[in-house]
Design brief:
- The chain has about 260 residues and is an alpha+beta fold.
- The chain has four helices and eight strands.
- The strands form two sheets. It has a six-stranded antiparallel sheet, covered by helices on one side. Strands 7-8 form a two-stranded antiparallel sheet.
- A hairpin with a 2-residue loop joins strand 1 and strand 2.
Length: about 260
């Protein structure tokens, strides 16, 4: 799992760097550096040496900041500001949510939300960590104590999206769970695979999202400049438009009875 994620990450970094202006690629001949975080903070990272730890210290370090529209790559200077760092401990079985790609815009949960109000768009992403209800939007590794699921992600938007009914999950359903035009606003359903017959919940993998982003760069859907991928968080609203939703769907391997086709 780690090797696959690292391989896809390196392809994405290569694709972005190869499209940067020539002046920004002047250092391309230098040997690549590895580790999104510096080695000198290894002992200060209070998480078990499992997937998140290894990805942070083994992934190729890009020569740019922006990995996707509005999302910058976490750095050593940022890590002390991890929103759920108070839960980090090398002695705990569960790794808390880890922020990998950060937006400058915050997401705020509704502290009054309960599991009995499923129609509320502001559904908590990390229910066991609800004493922290305002944190940066962006891409998080999900909390888990299952080693085979450690690359599961949640992409948290700073605004709800999907209410127009165009946005789709990987199983072909909209964010309301249906196949018709009645959508539902959500902060966290973008890129999620939906449900399978024998599974109550399945998260999107980090590698799956990185592969989708690689396609966006290679096709020219996303532009690149000196800082990496161009655009702000408003770009993601395209996922709920008639013209653009297909580019923001990662098709599940086992569609849930729908006859939709991604073209």
């Amino acid at each position: 799992m780690l090797k696959h994620n690292l391989d896809v990450w390196e392809k994405l970094v290569d694709a972005i760097e190869s499209r940067m202006p020539a002046a920004s690629r002047s250092q391309a001949a230098d040997p690549p550096a590895y580790g999104l975080l510096d080695d000198n903070i290894r002992d200060k990272i209070d998480i078990p040496q499992r997937f998140a730890f290894n990805f942070l210290f083994r992934a190729r370090r890009p020569r740019f900041k922006m990995i996707a529209p509005g999302l910058r790559i976490i750095t050593s200077a940022d890590f002390s500001d991890q929103p759920f760092r108070s839960y980090m401990s090398k002695d705990k079985e569960e790794v808390p949510p880890i922020l990998l790609f950060q937006s400058d815009l915050n997401f705020s949960e509704d502290p009054s939300w309960t599991p009995q109000s499923p129609d509320d768009a502001t559904v908590p992403n990390f229910f066991d960590y609800r004493d922290i209800n305002t944190y940066p939007s962006g891409l998080y590794l999900l909390p888990t104590n299952h080693r085979s699921l450690e690359d599961g992600i949640s992409f948290v938007l700073p605004y709800a999206n999907g209410g127009k009914g165009f946005a789709r999950r990987g199983d072909g359903t909209n964010f309301a769970g249906g196949e018709d035009s009645r959508g539902k606003d959500s902060f966290t359903e973008l890129y999620q695979p939906g449900r399978r017959a024998l599974e109550k919940f399945q998260a999107q993998s980090l590698a799956g999202m990185l592969e989708s982003w690689l396609g966006m760069v290679e096709r020219g859907d996303w532009k690149v400049d000196d800082n990496g991928v161009v655009g702000g968080m408003e770009t993601w609203r395209e996922a709920d438009t008639e013209e653009g939703w297909r580019k923001y769907v990662i098709s599940s391997k086992e569609p849930s009875g729908s006859d939709w086709e991604l073209v």
